[in-house]
Amino acid sequence: MTAINEVVDLSKEGDIAVVTVNSPPVNALSANVRDGLTEAFKQAIGDASAKAIVLICDGRTFIAGADISEFGKPPRGAPLGEVLSAIENAPKPVIAAIHGTALGGGLETALVAHYRVAVPSAKLGLPEVKIGLLPGAGGTQRLPRIVGVEKALEMITGGDPIGAKEAAATGLVDEVVEEGKLREQAIAFAKKVVGEGRPLKKVRDLPCSASPELFDKFFKANAKAFRGRMAPVNCAKAVQAATELPFDEGMKRERELFTELVTGDQSRALRYVFFAEREAAKIPDVPADTPVRDVKKVGVIGAGTMGGGISMNFLNAGIPVTMVEVQQEALDRGVGVIRKNYENSAKRGKLTAEQVEQRMGLLTPSLNLEDLADCDLVIEAVFELMDIKKELFGKLDKIVKQGAILASNTSYLNVDEMAACTSRPQDFIGLHFFSPANVMKLLEIVRGEKTGKDIIATCMGLAKKIGKVAVLVGVCHGFVGNRMLFQRTREANKLVDEGAMPWQVDKVLYDFGLPMGPFAMGDLAGLDIGWKAETSKSSTIRECLCEAGRRGQKTGAGYYDYDENRNASPSPVTEKIINDLRAKKGITPRAISDEEIFERTIYPMINEGAKILEEGKAIRASDIDIVWLNGYGWPAYRGGPMFYANLVGLKTVADKMNEFQAKYGDDFAVSPLLQRLADEGKTFADL
Ligand code: T1G
Fold first, then answer.
1. Residue nearest to atom 34 of ligand 1 (CA)
2. Model-level pTM?
3. pLDDT-above-70 percentage for the chain
4. C-alpha 25 to ligand 1 mean position (Å)
5. For the chain, which residues make up each domain, given as ranges?
């Protein structure tokens, strides 16, 4: 065996050369890997006694793509295109041996091999669209030539991988070999190719065509999914080029479309998000090897919307749940909702009938807190009233076994106050799920003053296990997400008082890329959350709407009017309520520009994010962005509120906030941190 460099080596098994990549953690195509491959293939091709070449990887996976950390830096090492051409033009068969995840440039490398074999557990995909790019090493030109144009469009614009079995069915993989025997069976396959004198099958030589209307139909069908996003559109255009141009012309078009993306803000934002999501899992004072507790059984108190959704997360991960309510009828309703959700998933083909039963079989409904005694983690999802929570934790402290984790799902209350009602504040933590809890990916993990490091490490690991993106936050009113959301909601309401209509405000934020604006969101959630008829005094638009029975989508009307399919339209009734209220308050409405709406709803959020950092309630600015991407639908291609501020320039934000403070008062007082960074010409990334 010859070590070509520190990440690639070359060996011989009889008359088969074996090129092995070993570059943890995921064998990404770094400059060293590219240089190593270039030299290894040069030697293997130059070795007349080598009749074929197997390309394989050590470690957890086949090449998982280009090295994303190299983007935006001066290029080093052999260009990927040259490495791939050398492989594709080898005068002897090259067989790619795939395990783990052959993704992006990794799959593109396998595509220039003449044959591909894979173990059953392997996954193959081109996920570049998820980081705002397109497969820039021939993937858009080769994949459609093998799996067909429609399948290639789906894989490249969606970015999700397919399994080895499906890959074999589409011809992307020539043989599925036995798990754990990849190396020996790939070599055997290579010997067979040589023995049978099979041709040097080049994917680039395969034909590729599609009916012209296919792409029109595809773009129309995906208009909503692609809204505001450059990458999937360019991906589809590149595939279209494969059906219209000779291969080399298609490659040129792919390069043009790739360059447009890689130099743009959207890909910068999405690459930032890729690393930010992984950074969020790293807690500076909680080392990765901190011991964790076993969580084999979970207790959830409350079978309502939140309690049921929270329970489903654990049931989905195969963790038994005891769900406790105070009344049988509420408990039965909660269990019924969970079953209905699973049955709906089964109807959509996402679950089998036995999986529904298996998950329901893990759920134990109960009316007794005592049934939680042997749980390893108990989460309360009861009313958002501190007294109720304190009393409950006082009881739980006497019931639940020592060493169990006690958690509150509170969305803004003080976790330390609750912990103080127990004899074990070191085992107490906040686990703030976002509704619907079985769908939204964000989990704000609230670190109490006394929360133990092992509890934090346990919950961060558990979050990953139940498919959540966890962000560690500190105790303050509304933690990170809701604390910033409050800024936006306040300004949105003031803007409507002053002269804007709800639909104007919503449109500004929808056009920016948010899934919906604050008023549409209010209608969706229900305007009567926290509203009481007996104390309502027609003092706000929301109160007037609720008093008029307009409580949101569920009543067919809220800020908007809704048709039978819940399509929203601006409401003359709401407009009259707004105008009457303005008159009552003596407000003369003024025309308000979209720009002012945008700046007054977004900049105070950014400013609040700066305060959160100043107070140490979030570890890093990118954590705040991860909260907003995964909890509130901030468009990932814009990176998050703090990334966006860096892009706009902190001086621009601070100057506008100061201008607004002079006009509209101290709601716009700039945080000292934001002002300092702005004055120093810095960004939040400099923290
Ligand atoms: N480049 C650099 N680092 C990467 C990386 C990559 N492509 N993929 C993963 N890492 C790091 C990651 O930051 C983390 O580091 C560690 O590896 C483990 O990752 C030319 C242009 C492979 C499915 O988009 O989807 O090819 O935090 O925590 O959950 O056309 O990583 O430990 O220091 O995610 O087991 C296309 C991205 C690139 C694949 C493994 N490829 N990676 O998941 O581990 S662009 C991708 C993943 C491209 C070509 C184009 C996942 C994974 P650290 P992890 P995991």
1. 278
2. 0.93
3. 100
4. 8
5. 2-262, 298-476, 520-585
Q: Which amino acid is at 408?
A: S
Ligand 1 neighbourhood includes 125 CB (under 6 angstroms): no
Q: How far is CA 295 from the centre of its chain?
A: 25
**How many Å lie between the centroid of ligand 1 and the Cα of residue 275?**
9
Between 3.40.50.970, 1.10.1040.10, 2.60.40.770, 3.90.640.10, what CATH number should domain 520-585 receive?
A: 1.10.1040.10
**Domain topology for 298-476:** Rossmann fold (3.40.50)
Least confident of 123-137, 256-270, 522-536, 574-588: 522-536
Are 2-262 and 298-476 in the same CATH fold?
no
Active site residues: 108, 128
Nearest residue CA, atom 46 of ligand 1? 65
Q: What is the homologous superfamily of the domain 2-262 according to CATH?
A: 2-enoyl-CoA Hydratase; Chain A, domain 1 (3.90.226.10)
Determine whether the shortest distance from the Cβ of 209 to ligand 1 is under 6 A.
Answer: no
Cβ(131) – ligand 1 distance below 6 Å: yes
pLDDT of 373 reads 98
In tens, the pLDDT along 236-256 reads: 999 999 999 999 999 999 999
- Specify the ligand 1 atom closest to the Cα of 139: 30
> What three-state secondary structure class fits 324?
strand
Q: Is 28 in the pocket of ligand 1 (CB under 6 A)?
A: yes
Q: Work out which ligand 1 atom sits closest to the CA atom of 66.
A: 26
For residue 467, is it left (φ>0), alpha (ψ between -120 and 50) or beta?
left
Q: Is 26 in the pocket of ligand 1 (CB under 6 A)?
A: yes
CA–CA dist 240, 234 (Å, integer): 10
- The secondary structure element, H or E, covering residue 601 is helix 594-614
Distance CA 62, CA 273 (A): 23
Secondary structure letter of residue 58 according to DSSP:
-
Tokens of 445: 């993990």
